[in-house]
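hiii, so i know i said id send this last week but things got crazy w the move. better late than never?? heres the sequnce for the chain we talked about at the cafe, plus the structure i predicted for it. fair warning i was half asleep when i ran it
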Amino acid sequence: MTSLLSVRDVHAGYGDFLVLDGASIEVEEGQIVCVIGPNGAGKSTLFKSIYGLLSPTRGSIEFDGSDILGVSQRELLDEGMAYVLQRNSSFPDMTVRENLELGAFVAESDYPVDEKIEETFEIFPALKAKQDTRAGNLSGGQQQMVELGRGLMLDPSLLLLDEPTAGLAPKVIDTIFERIEAINDRGVTILMIEQNVKTGVEYADHVFVLENGKTSFDANADDVLDMPEIREAYLKGVKEQD
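okay and structure toks below
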């Protein structure tokens, strides 16, 4: 596989407060990659650094072979990277369709917006019947689908997802991960932060663990749940499924 995103020895923070202290990850094209770690480990700071919302003081970030340090969010969108924030980033007073249209707001006037919306409805069929409903009147899971769908409107090759199941009911979490898997099946590489470690890892291909601003280790997802250190740190009280 080809490396689509390469983050090496990145240091970043807020003012004099250093959060990332040598974070490194590699995302291969076509993968679902999950970043896990305790609260305060720097996961969201890592994503903000990748997407140019923070300026690292040290390290390198390359996307599709090009250095993207200092590149604007608009340019990153044009290059094929999209970022879906944590929940509640939809516009509640706008309809589902209007929210999706906003995902293509920066596109050229001849961009096939309606066609892209129909493609989004293929991935999220539950939204088609709700397309004229205000997003604020949807269930939490449906609102998350709107946010994921909006992130797909410009055909990204890489989709960053910051805790896509945060705050959702347990019965909805698998549904969202199934939709993420469907997005990946259409050729979109996924890099996600997920606090629901067991389910996140089960759907991932590769896992990176971030602790104290550093990448402590990484492994193929199939091996991670059997690691004693992972079970001790993140899976206490989680029952094994048959």
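btw The chain is about 35% helix and 25% strand. thought thatd interest u
miss u guys!!
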